[in-house]
């Protein structure tokens, strides 16, 4: 009886067998993929975020610095409006100040570029496209 319990065929796992407890089990199946090397997911996420955010910032600064608005760039208008508002520092900008328009437009473009950059970078590293 000990000889018959030493090796037992497992249905559904192809040619794999279960052997006695003191031997190493080697189970294989057509349903299982090949072994994958374990990676630290925090390290991978951190590296991809650093790369995509840096490229996203550069990707937004370049087009927003093109002088397309009456000979001025969006970045230039936004930064000059910051300087204008800092000239009367304790008082905040008025609601009719062009600072708010440049602030919203510049940051909206930045966040869209960062979002699409993150989607593209993650999609590329995870082979979506």
UniProtKB/TrEMBL annotation:
<keyword id="KW-0812">Transmembrane</keyword>
<keyword id="KW-0472">Membrane</keyword>
<keyword id="KW-1133">Transmembrane helix</keyword>
<dbReference type="InterPro" id="IPR017498">
    <property type="entry name" value="PSI_PsaO"/>
</dbReference>
<feature type="transmembrane region" description="Helical">
    <location>
        <begin position="99"/>
        <end position="121"/>
    </location>
</feature>
<dbReference type="Pfam" id="PF22832">
    <property type="entry name" value="PsaO_TMD"/>
</dbReference>
<protein>
    <submittedName>
        <fullName>Photosystem I subunit O</fullName>
    </submittedName>
</protein>
